[in-house]
């Protein structure tokens, strides 16, 4: 096999793809069903929709080649199109260099930006100015609130999957993908415009930027940690804990490690993942209460904003911009996490429907285990429903091939105007030479949060197992 079955085409108009950021979304090869049912028609199309709606590209530009160029899969691994992101910087007037620095740091292997005649575009440049003004002044986001309502309703109205026919399970899963596509459009809008406020603050009070933006307040993605903390204060075998944990799984069960792939276990499908985190919290005293940490952050953010306003006192324009930028940055931080939560909640409905299909056909002997259902392609689901056992050998072989992709060392960049590497071109991770560090060596990476900390460095390779991480440790991981 030269390429994997869910690989997409590489753009020549927007040629540079990168694993930067992409490896945080999907660190491992995506499952065939995860790609063909949810990610390619849902996430990727929503990604393209969001770029067009945000105003950084014209619709014709990202449809001209007959496929979606904004991201892609190569040899099973997910890549973000860096050329499209660079184009945003060029058309916004800041150039490609700041984009490269934010994405790649000072990597020497970064492909240079090569200007295209169509990169400058006055229409798009004006759209981006209007969008920046919108991001600085918007106070409510009704579309996002409607998406939250729809996402919660999808969970509340979940049909009885155990009583559904095989065909009904497939129909239910497929019905959610257009909803997810629309919600990922929101996510692109919120994620992209999260940078507007910080960009302005960085020009006026760069040393206070991080502290000011940190006070986002009500953030949906933080809610599970607060709920887990409350559960960790209850006796594990008490009725209160049992009911509380059941409520927790209903509300937050869609979350978990690698949650963007339908194949992956989340808290609902594997409650032990959440229980392990709760058990780890039991070892922490009252000072570890996340609500107290959040309150300290909000207070410090308010103090930083007050200091910033004091610095620009007497300059009405700067005062207005600091206030607008701070409010925008905080709101969009919260909205970004809300839009992601909406997407994940809806995707999980497709996940659990397919898990039920996998469960029942593990029982019939058609599958070796229930997650093997994710070795199917979306276009094979109907044939599988008609004759499950005709796929037994094919899916077993495909699973072996898919697992072999996990052994590969993937390139950080892929260039569509050059030869895209094939599976046979890639070395195995075990064969890649790694220089061992010595005492006194300094390891550098990207910070997951601001500030300075001193403690024991703890490398965590499996996010599903937090048992090695103790209070005061500094977490080091391959991806955020």
Helix content: 40-55%
Q: How many strand elements?
A: 6
Strand content: under 5%
Q: What's the N-to-C terminus distance?
A: 31 Å
Taking the sheet with the most strands, its summary is: 4 strands, antiparallel
What is the H/E order? EHHEEHHHHHHHHHHHHHHHEEE
**Mean pLDDT, as a whole number?**
93
Number of helices: 17
How large, in whole angstroms, is the Cα Rg?
A: 23 Å
| Count of discrete structural domains | 2
Structural class determined from secondary elements: mainly alpha
Q: pLDDT under 50 segments (min length 5)?
A: none
With strands numbered from the N-terminus, the spatial order across the biggest sheet is 2-3-1-4
Q: Overall 3D geometry?
A: globular
Describe this structure in words.
By secondary structure, the protein is mainly α. It has two domains: 16-220 and 293-431, no CATH class; 225-254 and 264-284, no CATH class. The chain is 51% helix and 4% strand. It contains 17 helices and six strands. It has helices spanning 22-25, 32-54, 82-92, 97-104, 122-137, 142-156, 166-175, 177-193, 196-204, 209-213, 223-232, 239-252, 272-282, 290-311, 316-363, 381-386, 392-405; strands at 16-18, 71-74, 77-81, 413-415, 457-459, 474-476. The strands form two sheets. A four-stranded antiparallel beta sheet has the order 2-3-1-4. α2 packs across α8, α7 packs antiparallel against α15 and α9 runs antiparallel to α15. It is globular and about 75 Å long.
